[in-house]
UniProtKB/TrEMBL annotation:
PANTHER family named in the record: AMINOMETHYLTRANSFERASE, AMINOMETHYLTRANSFERASE, MITOCHONDRIAL
Region described as Disordered: spans on this chain: 15-94, 335-362
A Pfam family that the UniProt record links to this protein: GCV_T_C
SUPFAM superfamilies: Aminomethyltransferase beta-barrel domain (SSF101790), Folate-binding domain (SSF103025)
Protein name (record): Aminomethyl transferase family protein
Amino acid sequence: MKTCSYMPFHRVTLPRTCSRSRRTGRPRRADPSPRAMAPTPGSPYSDPETSTRRPPDENACPAPRRDPALFRRSNSREATDRQGRPVRNSVGKNELQNFGKFRVSGRNARGWLDRIMAGRVPRPNPLALPPMLSPSGRLMSDLTISCLSETEFRRAGSYGAQEIHLRWFETHLEDDVDVENVSVRVTGFQIAGLRTHDPLALATRDPTDPRLLDVRPMAVRQVTCLVHRMSYGDDPGFRLYCPPMNQCSLWKTLWEADRPISAGADSERAVLRDRVLEAFTAAVDDAHVQGHEPIWIDGRVQGLCTSGGYPPRAGVSVASGFVPRDRARDGLGMRNEFLDERRPARPATRPPFHAEGERTLG
């Protein structure tokens, strides 16, 4: 009698969400990125990594706290789309802690990099993205390399693969070359989008128009950063590297510089380009302009007062304010609102006293 035995095989499909990072169960180490932004952590290389974050005043699209294993879309879709929208329309920000970073130094640093990397090693200042190959010619990794000098280089790659990269470097290390993992000692932020230069220009006095792939130090308010000029999906971008102790200060600087731009508040500055500062006198005896009083022209509010006062020597109430450029002319009939009353005002084309400066000039 012949017995046939068989083993049943079943094909099982496990649910896979969009996010491969799982909730951190034990935050052994954490980067100093601001926790007030409600981050949702992932866990590459056993360290927390901020996956999504939201400002505390945004309740319409709450940041996902869990990423359950479902066949449906991940619940991080709305938060991810919300964070990607500023990159397409204005400016987006992301931290650099999720990059593995290495410092390569020594007299033989360039020669060693030239042998271990398949691409061209950059000269001082520009960046390069050469691939790193295995002995069989297979791609191991793409690493961004920046040359600070002929004896010092920086490399950035996958944070989760930093130990793999470090073992590979140490296996092929040569004399007069020092490789150091500085992933937890260097962090920062990257910004990208159509208006990337605008918040950076508000936060630094250094030139913010470097060429693509340039590397330069830059003082962003009180933080000295190593800035890489990048490109993200055909949009301009910057990577700003700094020490961990300065990351919170850098975030505050970038956030405050970007808020007017992202909120559209800079449109007010565009409107002011069509206005001119006008000085005028007001027919009022018992009050004077303090600031923010409406300026009425032809029955409509056309501007606001910026400042004013009553100089006793002139004997008249004076003020200044912005009015439309096409309405600023000699003899323009205006009215200022004082204590719920509209008082006549007219442009002051001459100073109220010593108009010619004869006493000053002698």
